[in-house]
RNA sequence: UGGGGAAUAGUGUAACGGUAGCACUCCGGACUCUGACUCCGUCAGUCUAGGUUCAAAUCCUAGUUCCCCAGCCA
């Protein structure tokens, strides 16, 4: 184990409960060789941020302990699974930074072995072919408070079981007509132990094994053995599988094979969104979102397109920790993680979302002043770019107030404000239309850079600005817990009607070449991502990843 | 009503019989050519009731609340 540090006793790093279990096992010389984890998705949907937690956990543990990490598809149900999902999941796992090296596996790779083991269990009198229909089986199973009854087929002779199982495999029976069941205990208080189904008949085409099989193993009969075959030491899964652990253990014991240790943790919940595959699918099929990669979705593909980075999601998963308590993480944590990462990475640019025209009266029409602006104020190596300053410019309408409170540091009649990187302007005149709306400001420009003024605002040249589509995203749901609905309503009723606002914004001209897939901070506004799907050459589309923190709105309210 | 889990500031997460710590949020302040970033500070917690002990978040007893399980889904 660890030896005492020579001097200057260091505080031990805080360990989560899984690390503590592993540490203890290591200390007790169990699983000593090398720890080995895996991420076992079913290829029947897209990955979401909850899966990212599991991937980061499993891969992180392997890294931390110098062990290995596998990617294994749990593809035991051909009627729900598709190659398309396999491809997207692999891409997302890779993007998340988890490296399975050459260890990409499929539970379907083990079908032959699983079948042989089933025969072994039949021969040992630990499995039998059952003729009960699904409805009958439900009846025989009993309830939470009432024990089940033995299947009439439970005591079938071994040779008869063997023959029937062979016929099941040979395709002689229709779907659902028979099952192979483990013979455990119909009176067990844990319902998973009441003679669970090991094999069911499904004459279905499997995305990998084709039509080789018409019987498919169940999750319970597959998962632990797959872990075992791969030499997994810690089979980490979510809490709902806690009730399955006795079964997991039973199969490994009955088969006498390497017995990985299953450990369960609480899945991730986030405020203002939904996470279940079913609900996400519903959002897509009912067109509440544009697809699985809609930037409002908590899917990895959605987050990627929103502008989240691998590093930000890793940091987030690290920060939320892991425990057995069902918790809900505030969405603000996710946003905070991207801000932190993007603050360092994203180049800066100026963009005006909601414009107000200013005429700089002391500049000539047609005159252009080249303004040098740093691409990243904290990182000189990022270089400079040029902004054209012209007589007519656009500023954010919010940055001017006629009757401004004392704490308003921006532009007001007669007041001064700094134009980012350019100089200082003074508001001489407010022009209004017949209805009294401010339509234009007339200001004088002072190129002095040294004077101090309290406020700095962003701007673009009216003549030279690039018009571009900017998508302002907000929470998918209008309430923290969208599942919390009154009788007769669903989470759909809690969707945020303003989760997407698409506008035409005015951007500094250098952005015309913005490359799809890059992150940019529009100063004072937020982080934006050049949409990789809808951007076309010279016509970038920007997705707002996250706003900047804004302490002004707090003052205002 | 059976079985399996879980309860620590607003939200997460540590402390493993010996000063309840950390992060985010909130609030206050400093700095600032982004009201950003950064920095500093404040507020705030052991589900309840008993018990063991010099000492309990931790051990014991009883209770409360929440989650999961009755698919030939995973």
TrEMBL record:
Its EC number is 6.1.1.18. Residues 456-531 form the tRNA synthetases class I (E and Q) anti-codon binding domain. ATP binds at residues 42-44, 48-54, 238, 267-268, 275-277. L-glutamine binds at residues 74, 219. It catalyses: tRNA(Gln) + L-glutamine + ATP = L-glutaminyl-tRNA(Gln) + AMP + diphosphate. Keywords: Aminoacyl-tRNA synthetase, ATP-binding, Cytoplasm, Ligase, Nucleotide-binding, Protein biosynthesis. Residues 346-446 form the Glutamyl/glutaminyl-tRNA synthetase class Ib anti-codon binding domain. It comes from the Bacteria. It is found in: Cytoplasm. GO terms for cellular component: cytosol. Pfam families: tRNA-synt_1c, tRNA-synt_1c_C, tRNA-synt_1c_C2. One of its GO terms (molecular function) is glutamine-tRNA ligase activity. One of its GO terms (biological process) is glutaminyl-tRNA aminoacylation. SUPFAM superfamilies: Nucleotidylyl transferase, Ribosomal protein L25-like. Residues 34-343 form the Glutamyl/glutaminyl-tRNA synthetase class Ib catalytic domain. A motif ('HIGH' region) lies at residues 41-51. It is an enzyme of class 6 (ligase). A motif ('KMSKS' region) lies at residues 274-278. InterPro entries: aa-tRNA-synth_I_CS, Gln-tRNA-synth, Gln/Glu-tRNA_Ligase, Gln_tRNA_ligase_bac, Glu/Gln-tRNA-synth, Glu/Gln-tRNA-synth_Ib_cat-dom, Glu/Gln-tRNA-synth_Ib_codon-bd, Rbsml_bL25/Gln-tRNA_synth_N. Monomer. Belongs to the class-I aminoacyl-tRNA synthetase family. This is Glutamine--tRNA ligase.
């Amino acid at each position: 184990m660890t030896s005492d540090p020579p001097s200057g006793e260091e505080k031990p790093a805080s360990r989560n409960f899984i690390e503590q279990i592993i540490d203890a096992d290591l200390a007790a010389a169990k699983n000593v060789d090398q720890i080995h984890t895996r991420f076992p998705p079913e290829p029947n949907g897209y990955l979401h941020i909850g899966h990212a937690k599991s991937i980061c956990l499993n891969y992180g543990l392997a890294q931390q302990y110098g062990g290995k990490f596998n990617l294994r598809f749990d593809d035991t149900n051909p009627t729900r699974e598709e190659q398309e999902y396999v491809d997207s999941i692999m891409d997302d796992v890779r993007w998340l930074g988890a490296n399975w090296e050459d260890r990409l596996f499929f539970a379907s790779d083990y079908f032959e072995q699983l079948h042989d083991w089933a025969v072994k269990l039949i021969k040992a009198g630990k499995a039998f072919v059952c003729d009960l229909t699904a409805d009958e089986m439900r009846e025989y199973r009993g309830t939470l408070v009432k024990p089940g009854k033995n299947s009439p087929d439970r005591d079938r002779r071994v040779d008869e079981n063997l023959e029937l199982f062979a016929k099941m495999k040979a395709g002689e029976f229709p779907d659902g007509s028979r099952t192979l069941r483990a013979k455990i205990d119909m009176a067990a208080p844990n319902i998973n132990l009441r003679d669970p189904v090991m094999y069911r008949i499904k004459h279905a085409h499997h995305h990998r094994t084709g039509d080789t099989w018409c019987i498919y193993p169940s999750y319970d009969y597959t998962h632990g053995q797959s872990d075992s075959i791969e030499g997994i030491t810690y089979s980490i899964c979510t809490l709902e599988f806690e009730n399955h652990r006795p079964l997991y253990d039973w199969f490994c014991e009955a088969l006498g094979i390497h017995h990985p240790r299953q450990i369960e943790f609480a899945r991730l919940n986030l405020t203002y969104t939904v996470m279940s595959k079913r609900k996400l699918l519903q959002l897509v099929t009912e067109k509440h979102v544009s697809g699985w990669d809609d930037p409002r979705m908590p899917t990895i593909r959605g987050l990627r397109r929103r502008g989240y980075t691998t590093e930000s999601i890793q940091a987030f998963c690290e920060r939320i920790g892991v425990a057995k308590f069902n918790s809900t993480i505030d969405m603000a944590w996710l946003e905070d993680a991207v801000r932190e990462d993007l603050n360092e990475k994203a180049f800066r640019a100026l963009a005006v979302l909601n414009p107000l025209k200013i005429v700089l009266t002391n500049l000539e029409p047609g005159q252009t002043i080249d303004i040098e602006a740093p691409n990243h104020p904290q990182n000189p190596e990022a270089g400079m770019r040029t902004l054209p300053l012209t007589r007519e410019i656009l500023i954010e309408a919010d940055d001017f107030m006629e009757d401004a409170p004392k704490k308003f540091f921006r532009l007001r009649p007669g007041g001064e404000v700094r134009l980012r990187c350019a100089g200082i302007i003074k508001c001489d005149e407010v022009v209004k239309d017949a209805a009294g709306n401010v339509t234009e400001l007339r200001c004088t420009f002072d190129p002095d850079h040294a004077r101090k003024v309290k406020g700095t605002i962003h701007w673009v040249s009216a003549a030279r600005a690039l018009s571009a589509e900017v998508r302002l995203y907000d929470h998918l749901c209008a309430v923290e817990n969208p599942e919390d609905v009154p009788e007769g309503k669903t989470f759909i009723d809690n969707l945020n009607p303003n989760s997407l606002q698409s506008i035409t914004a005015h951007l500094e001209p250098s952005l015309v070449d913005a490359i799809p897939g890059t992150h940019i901070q529009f100063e004072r506004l937020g982080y934006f991502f050049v949409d990789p799907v809808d951007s076309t050459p010279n016509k970038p589309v920007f997705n707002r990843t996250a706003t900047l923190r804004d302490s002004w709105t707090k003052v205002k309210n």
